[in-house]
What does this fold into?
Amino acid sequence: MASNVVSRVDLQPIASAAPAPGAATLGERLDLVGHVKVKVSVSLGGAEMTVAKLFSLSANEVIALDRSVDAPVDVKLNDKVIARGALVAVGDNFGVRISEILKE
Amino acid sequence: MSGPHEHRPYLLIGESRRNAAARALKLGIESWRAKWSHGSQAVSVDVAEDWLQPGKARELSEGCIATAHSNSRSVLMTVEVPARLVAALLGSSSPYGTGGFATDTLESDVLAEVARSLCAELLVRARTLDASVEVVDAKSHRQGRSSLESEASSYWSATVRFGQEAEFQVLLHISLLEVLAPPSVKSVAEPPLQPRRQAITEEILRLEAWLGDTEVSLQELADLSCGDVIVLQKTLRDPGYLTTDTGARVGDIVLGCSGSCRAVSVVA
It folds into this structure.
């Protein structure tokens, strides 16, 4: 077993400089994080009710939502609506066909 | 009877209202004085503790006594006005002397009017407009004075001084004293406590119905465009869920419609 000298490492303070505009090192390198998975959720709509009504809800009770039957559903990411679309069935699963999305 | 300070009903109206009555009395006397004299002669009104005690009341030798009666003839107020008050009130230029003067003279008429006007001023401030005022000579009043002293504990005495010489007393019945003070402010009744559960149940919640979710990569998200289909990780038989606006899940739902509205049915 080789004998190595073990010594303490002292960290030096790093001077923080204000970032220059447009001088980001990585820029928006989506290829670096493109594989990262995020969760998107599909909202059907909402409704308002009192706590008393909520507590008295029984099975099979119907709650009308604030959307019409034909209205698109919202696709949300981090509680922000990023797209809207129509509900579809994809095989045995639900899906959303995007009808509104911003071009970026 | 245990002492001269027994039955002092004015104590019952409380310190703040008693002070308010004293202020009202002082203001009334100031107002009355201003109507008679435009001079700046200082007037002091001591209304604190000079309670009229039976048998100890000072007898007025020269002057008049004005008595305000209510409709029931009970005495509301007595003003003992010395003869020298006229001179003190009207100033040094007054033609009236500082001594007494005979009854049925112009001087005695002025004195009676001085006393009557003070009664009237205080009655107005006490919002007691239906009282009558009688003015009699002090000497002839002594006979009836005993009846006042017999119920002296119901009166409150104010000693009014003009300069050093002229001093007179105002005796107020407790009923008048009470109305001189502004009505006591009744504290607003605090509402009774209500059960928290009942209060909570009236709270309105915003609920959101979710069909489901899926994971997509950031690259897929960046490439997403109209016409693309996002496949959810949820079969057509899987229920959706209901959440509060804070994200708390409150139940599972099945998607449907109710009339023209999208609707959900609670399944659990």
Observations:
- Chain B touches chain A through 54 residues (CB under 8 Å).
- Chain B has two domains: 9-180, 205-266.
- The longest strand of chain B covers residues 204-217.
